[in-house]
Amino acid sequence: MTQLKLISLEKSYNNGTPVLKNVSLDIQSGELIVFVGPSGCGKSTLLRMIAGLEQITDGTLEIDGQYMNDMPASKRGIAMVFQSYALYPHLTVRDNMSFALKIAKYKQSDIDAAVSKAAKALKLEDYLDRLPKELSGGQRQRVAIGRAIVRDPKVFLFDEPLSNLDAALRVETRIEIARLKESMPDRTMIYVTHDQVEAMTLASRIVVLANNTVEQVGTPLDLYDNPDNEFVAQFIGSPAMNLLPGEIVATGKQTKVKLSDNCVAVSNIVTSESDLGKQVNVGIRPEDLSLTEDDHVLEAVVDITEALGEYTLLYLKHVSHAANLVAKVPGTHKSLRNKLIKFIAKPSKIHIFHDGISMR
């Protein structure tokens, strides 16, 4: 059972350019932690710092209470699965998976047992004597994962392992990783991805990185339902949360916000009299907007429709709000294009942000 502790980790390049600042995180034994964030936020750099492939500029990395900053990568008890498969093209699947154990001079019987166990877990038993060129992309990635499994590491690190696969293979391999984690409940895994579906479905907790540091840490549903700030609110969820400017006109157990088109949004967020008159942004997720003919929180012209079978995405033109707004409504609604439509949202689904920070 392996625990990681990141204490005020920092990373800067030689010219002083900061990559990561004051990253502190406790990763408990058996967790599957997912790092997400925009391109260039430092999520892969942080993973490589944990692996020992990037030098830590400042702060402390501990694994099971042991100081790891200067520990060589080979001594950290970590196995890493990269975005590229990094398989030896001239070696069979069996030899690729057993290579590290042979270098470490394990007994052949132990090597065979480890490879057989990993191949069974990843459904690779029928491919052990094939070369990588004879495998599909998904099979190659499973071989790369199997090569990590046979080493029986304390911690698994995954650096965008599915990004090179097509959509169908991505789903299939994601399911294999989820099953793998269930079969190894005591193993700690850290996973980097830009795919929200991977993050939401695989993670026990998600770490959102932006602006060179950690923006928020929480379970997938906690980040979705209770974002700390506008960045997290718009980053988690697809399409992104809509933000509408307004002014608080009533406070208490329910807060009312007058929007720029004289509509009023009612939220279950509790505010005090001192909040009266504050300029805020009201956040509503596209899937929380429903069509209505009655009192409404939003009125806009449908500019573009994208009918996707189960639901339709409506891209909206708002009279006084320049930003793009999106509604995600069940069913097919291509006939709504160019029409003025009213939407309602439940008070429990309406977020309020002041100076970018949630008022919940």
Write a structural description.
The chain has helices at residues 43-51, 93-103, 108-121, 137-149, 167-183, 196-202, 220-225, 230-235, and strands at 4-12, 18-27, 32-36, 58-63, 66-67, 78-81, 155-159, 188-192, 205-210, 213-218, 242-250, 255-259, 264-267, 279-284, 290-292, 298-307, 311-317, 325-330, 340-344, 351-354, 357-358. With 360 residues, it is of the alpha+beta class. It has two domains: 4-235, P-loop containing nucleotide triphosphate hydrolases (Rossmann fold); 242-358, Nucleic acid-binding proteins (OB fold (Dihydrolipoamide Acetyltransferase, E2P), Beta Barrel). The strands form four sheets. It has a six-stranded mixed beta sheet with strand order 6-7-8-3-9-10, sandwiched between helices. Strand 1 and strand 2 (18-27) form a beta hairpin. 35% of the residues are buried.
Describe the structure concisely for a colleague.
With 360 residues, this protein is an alpha+beta fold. The chain is globular and about 75 Å long. The protein contains eight helices and 21 strands.
Secondary structure blueprint with pairings:
Layout lengths: L3 E9 L5 E10 L4 E5 L6 H9 L6 E6 L2 E2 L10 E4 L11 H11 L4 H14 L15 H13 L5 E5 L7 H17 L4 E5 L3 H7 L2 E6 L2 E6 L1 H6 L4 H6 L6 E9 L4 E5 L4 E4 L11 E6 L5 E3 L5 E10 L3 E7 L7 E6 L9 E5 L6 E4 L2 E2 L2
Parallel strand pairs: 3-8, 3-9, 6-7, 7-8
Antiparallel strand pairs: 1-2, 1-4, 4-5, 9-10, 11-12, 11-14, 12-13, 14-20, 15-19, 16-17, 16-19, 17-18, 20-21
Helix pairs in contact: 2-3, 2-4, 3-4, 4-5
